[in-house]
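Students often ask why inverse folding is considered easier than folding. One informal answer: many sequences map to the same fold, so there is more than one right answer. In these notes we will look at a single instance of the problem. The structure comes first.
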């Protein structure tokens, strides 16, 4: 059987074109558009991500504003910064980088976001809307998974999707989005019994657990579609949650790097463009 490599690049490029058109039209109409990125302290992963996002905003003609609060900032101070951005007409979207330092209540910060500017779907309002199928958008990574499946025309209706991971940013929202597409969804996590057995039943596997090479070929049904969300930094560079040998058993898979990650970044820009 021929294996389809579902590269993220063509998906990202197709989305970028649409976003560019929207941004140009808004600018012609005299509208200013900018993404605000809020960091508290100095989390290295957040800086890596911010650098990526700044590059893409620039390439699409979207403005950016970096709001940097010191590592000793209080919850009230972070919320105050978010409120200012909520009321700023030049800011189309706000991304508070997580995790925040221990003394800051990240959930309270998420809840303070104006829902329409909540790019990463951190507010309970947007999370709840997603649950009832009326969301503005989901977080970027789950949307990227769905965009890839759609771009490569993977049939979803009636398929059994097994999601590994139950985080608020990936596992839970991607399970909801798959459910919206009429998949039968199983969510596995650290307390799941017989996890390999369940994964073996999957037509579609979405791996989002943050463990390098966790999904091995013996856990995958021949011909399954495998979406790898993992970005694990190892001595050998960035590797996914899925072992490379799984590619030989799957009918389609996303590579890491160059798969979900590249589309995820563009989905952030898509969320900004929706506010134009
Ligand atoms: N509210 C919030 N949302 C986040 O999504 C969030 C966050 N806070 N805090 C920090 C972490 C870290 N993070 C990264 C994303 C991509 C790369 C990365 O290296 N991406 C590669 C993609 C690698 C690939 O191709 O798979 C790239 O853009 O080229 C790193 C780090 C997001 N985060």
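Output (designed amino acids):
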């Amino acid at each position: 059987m021929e294996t389809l490599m579902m590269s993220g690049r063509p998906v990202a490029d197709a989305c970028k074109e649409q976003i560019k058109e929207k941004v140009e039209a808004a600018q012609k109409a005299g509208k200013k558009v900018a993404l605000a990125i809020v960091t508290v302290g100095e989390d290295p992963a957040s800086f890596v991500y911010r650098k990526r996002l700044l590059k893409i905003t620039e390439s699409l003609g979207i403005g950016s504003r970096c709001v940097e609060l010191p590592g000793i900032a209080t919850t009230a101070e972070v919320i105050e910064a978010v409120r200012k951005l909520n009321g700023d007409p030049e800011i189309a979207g706000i991304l508070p980088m997580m995790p925040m330092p221990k003394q800051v209540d990240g959930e309270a910060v998420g809840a303070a976001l104006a829902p329409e500017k909540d790019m990463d779907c951190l507010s309970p309002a947007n999370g709840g809307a997603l649950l009832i199928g009326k969301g503005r958008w989901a977080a970027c990574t789950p949307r990227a998974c769905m965009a890839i499946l759609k771009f490569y025309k993977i049939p979803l209706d009636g398929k059994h999707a097994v999601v590994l991971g139950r985080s608020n940013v990936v596992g839970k929202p991607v399970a909801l989005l798959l459910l919206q597409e009429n998949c039968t969804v199983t969510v596995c996590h650290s307390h799941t019994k017989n996890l390999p057995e369940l994964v073996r039943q999957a037509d579609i596997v979405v791996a989002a657990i943050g463990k390098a090479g966790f999904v091995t070929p013996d856990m995958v049904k021949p011909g399954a579609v495998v979406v790898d969300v993992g970005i694990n930094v190892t001595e050998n560079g960035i590797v996914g949650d899925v072992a490379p040998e799984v590619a030989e058993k799957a009918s389609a898979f996303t590579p890491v790097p160059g798969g979900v990650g590249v589309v995820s970044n563009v989905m952030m820009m898509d969320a900004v463009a929706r506010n134009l």
